Amino acid sequence: MIKYLPSHEYVKVDGNIAYIGISPYAAAQLGNVVYVDMPEEGDDVVAGEDFGAIESVKAASDLFAPVSGAVIEANEHLIDNPRLINEDPLANWIIKVEMSNPAELDNLLDEEAYAALCASEKH
Amino acid sequence: MHRYLPHTEQDIAQMLEACQAKSLDDLYSDVPEQLKLKRPYQLPAEMSEKEVRDFFAAMRAKCTQLVCFGGAGYYDHYAPAVINALISRSEFLTAYTPYQPEISQGTLQYIFEYQSMMTSLTGLDVSNASMYDGATATAEAMLMCVAAARKKNRVLISATMNPAVADVVRTYARYHGVALEVIPEKNGVTSRAEFEEMMQAGDVAGVIVPAPNFFGIVEDYTGWADLCHKYKALFVMNCQASALAAIKTPGEWGADIAVGDAQSLGMPLNYGGPYLGYMCCTNALIRKMPGRIVGATKDKDGKRVFVLTLQAREQHIRREKATSNICSNQGLMALYVTIYMSLMGPEGLKQVNELSADGAHYMAHHLTETGAMHLLHPHEPYHNEFLMKLEKVTADQVLAATLAEGIFGGVKLADDLLLIAVTEMQSKADIDRYIDIIRKLTTE
Amino acid sequence: MNRELYGSLIFEHSCKGRRGFSLPRNPYKHVELPEKLRRSQPLDLPEVDEPTVVRHYTNSSNNNFGVDTGFYPLGSCTMKYNPKINDEMAADPVISRLHPLQPVSTTQGALEIYYTLQQALSEIGGMAEFTLNPFAGAHGELTGLMTIHAYHDSRSDWARTKVIVPDSAHGTNPASAAVCGYKIVEVKSLPDGTVDVDDLKSKLGPDIAAVMMTNPNTVGMFEKHIPEIAEAVHACGALMYYDGANLNPMLGVCRPGDMGFDVMHINLHKTFSTPHGGGGPGSGPIGVRKGLEQFLPNPRVVKLADGTFDVVCEDSALGRVSQWLGNFAVEIRALSYIMSLGSENLMMVGKLATLNANYIMQALRDLYLLPIEGPCKHEFVFDGLKDKSTGVTTLNVAKRLLDFGFHAPTIYFPLLFHESLMIEPTETETRETLDRFIAVMRQIAGEAASDPELVKSAPHLTPISHPDDTEAALHPLPTYRSLL
């Protein structure tokens, strides 16, 4: 299952584990990613609050957590090669979180609703 | 018309016509009448260049240049003639921030050189392109500590910090909402015991200490960085730039951030400014650092070139989420210190520091011999500035007596405390004259 | 400007044993600090002789473009001519060597300069009093907001935690408000570029500390509803902050104090002709209306009954934002400028700056997209070329301008338009310069249609071609050591 925040973060769910990253649409808008500011393993993230930031040459935006929980892994490949996000944003998640309240997933956009949002932003 | 305003009557008429406007006022038809200024400014009429010169000459006549034994954060060092000649080049002087790297390599290159020199001076990895002054740079370092710590909001600052610097930091803390607490002073140095206790109380995001401290003392910070890091706090050192060629560097002490004023690198005192605030930090903090940063890269033809980089941190992109609101740097003053350090080199800076520190020790020794005063903290090592406890005379008496001889005798910290600084600008004869004045004062 | 890249670094001219300094002989006994307090790392500074230093920086300066080099229509930056007499006055051999803490009896002339400029700015801004202590525009904004904070604090009005900022504002406005501890509330702009008054009014309330505005705003339009806005803002108990970045076109026409602003800053490096110095030092004095003077930062310069000047600190002040009285040498330049022009010429500055801007706007609007109609003030914004089919962007136009010996306008700001190209000529440019700029802009528009690749691959005649920004940000190389 994959769900989205209106601020373009996705969450892919595998049991109680959530993989959080940014959508292909957001990655394309941002352009070449040069840096990802990530939390450390063990940090808590809270749904709706920022957990880091992502930067391209000319833009930067905060990263918001779609769900709450404890960070079990930050994607270390992004430290040396942040452009992986441009290559395949869905495969290259940013953090892996153990969800503390999976019911939060119900508040997020499904693929259809998210696609509609992106379409409306293009205009 | 005026020499700065090239428009002739004919220009104005023809340009207005091109704009389909009848008069210059027509171009302001959208400004409500009641807001318009209906009278000339109540300011003096145009002055010729000669009259402007005369005015400032009259102001000069109301000022007295003194032999300067005052320090307290501002040091009267020698400014080589080369510097003014070069920074007056209008290609440097009249340029703006190097937004267009293709026609700004001159500016970008000297900022890169500046960053390289400052990192060597402080012993840290990276430097920004400079900030306003040492006090605001210190305040920015405090904000950086809080931003890096994310949730912690407590910052400690040593009581031995220059009080004017501490005041600026306190002002930023008050409005930004940082809990700034003072680590007390004991015998002229920051209390180690109280520092440890305050760290143990928890929630500290950063610790700010001076080198040399406000009393000129070079404090021993052995173990301070480790303790900070144990509690995940950043260790910030505010250092007098010139002295860093002689004293242990922030890098050697294990500091995360070095800030301070670079005025001591040969900048004219200029009645308080412009100076330059520097900021250096470790690689780990580079993306949290405020201000502009220049980096090397290649152009399309493979040439090594310089650009403003990591701009995503800055206010024009991040707006309210930026690390800082700083927009400019002290560009031309960065060029100033870059040329200064190029001329001085390691040997020149070493000699400046020796002249200053040796002169200070000579002076302190002989002033003590007069019996009128002695070092308040005789067992603490100092650099080029020292704090005298006065006995048979008051600070006001000393200042009046030296002023009568064309000498600025130091900065009064209390009726019986006088802070005296020495640089290469005061000759041995000046120092001897000062000592004589004190001798006379006590025998009168 | 030299079209060949000079390129070498001072470190690359270093030769061990050379020296560029001249110091007196050391007559004292040498004293060493204890070893644990001494520097042990070598100091990596270049070792160069004086002529090498002079040639290095002279050659390097030849790769730089300043106002003295050519037309610099950088929007929102007011790149006017920087008069040379100002620099000479600022380099006064006595005043430039005054120590801030030496007795005020020996610095009366310096204090009189400060006081005189403070008075002149008060008259020009329509304010009760100024402080010259802030070091730059952004620092002035922060100090101004602290003044407002101190005012609300003095009334125990703690609920005011937000500041309203238009979406067209300079990035420093929200950033300064955030540093001052405020949350930001954004108001929208109308299609004509001015603030949506209804949207603004709907956001006013007991939680608003201030409204920050630039007038004329960043698209160069005068906010004509300013009296209505000021009234509504004051009625809700908040204060009006004037961002003085665009003060130049108001000189001689209209004063921020008369518009209803309570606090303002002025960029001396814009309106008052002090050189930008490649990014600084600037100066950002702030002014306040009557009733707010006591909150201005310490230290302050006052004129005593006997006509002498003193430096004082007040308990009511917001605190200290600078160690001393700001960038004093910059203040000298601004006063020299004001005196050189005098009242009668200062009255003309705004109108001539506005005339120059309108002249360019009218001459180019058939080829460049003008999103907002009506007479502009000192600057205006095009939303790129009118013909979007060529794929030539604002960035391309800006870079192509460099080939013709012009500095580029401000690009991609304000954020209201995708292809913002913001042009501010200032009043010190001749009509011939404007005509030449217009001709070149028209030529570029023609090239965009006939040979778009020529424009897209620009610049062609500068010392370097396009630098790789992405690589610079991915793997930062910020020091000489990092290159080795």
Shape of chain A: globular
DSSP strand content of chain B: 15-25%
Q: Which structural class do you get from the secondary structure elements of chain B? A: alpha/beta
Task: Indicate how many domains the architecture of chain A comprises.
Answer: 1
> Cα-atom Rg of chain A, whole angstroms?
13 Å
CATH architecture classification of the largest domain in chain B? 3-Layer(aba) Sandwich
Structural class of chain A: alpha+beta
Rg result of chain B: 26 Å
| Quaternary status | heterotrimer
Q: Give the distance, in angstroms, between the N- and C-terminal Cα atoms of chain A.
A: 28 Å
Helices and strands in order:
The complex is a heterotrimer of chains A (123), B (444) and C (484).
Chain A: E1 2-4, E2 9-14, E3 17-22, H1 24-30, E4 33-37, E5 44-45, E6 50-56, E7 60-64, E8 69-74, H2 77-80, H3 84-87, E9 95-99, H4 111-121
Antiparallel strand pairs in A: 1-2, 2-3, 3-9, 4-6, 5-8, 6-7, 8-9
Chain B: H1 9-18, H2 49-61, E1 67-68, H3 81-87, H4 90-93, H5 105-122, E2 126-127, H6 134-149, E3 154-158, H7 163-176, E4 179-183, E5 185-186, E6 189-190, H8 192-200, E7 204-211, H9 224-230, E8 234-239, H10 250-253, E9 257-261, E10 277-281, E11 293-298, E12 304-309, H11 315-318, H12 331-369, E13 373-375, E14 385-390, H13 395-403, E15 407-408, E16 411-414, E17 417-421, H14 428-443
Parallel strand pairs in B: 1-15, 3-4, 3-7, 7-8, 8-9
Antiparallel strand pairs in B: 2-10, 5-6, 9-10, 11-12, 13-14, 14-17, 16-17
Chain C: H1 50-61, H2 84-90, H3 108-125, E1 129-131, H4 137-154, E2 162-166, H5 172-179, E3 183-187, H6 197-203, E4 208-213, H7 226-235, E5 239-242, H8 256-259, E6 263-265, E7 286-288, E8 300-303, E9 309-312, H9 328-364, E10 380-383, H10 394-403, E11 410-411, E12 420-423, H11 431-450, H12 452-456, H13 469-474, H14 480-483
Parallel strand pairs in C: 2-3, 2-4, 4-5, 5-6
Antiparallel strand pairs in C: 1-7, 6-7, 8-9, 10-12, 11-12
Helix pairs in contact in C: 2-9, 3-9, 4-5, 9-11
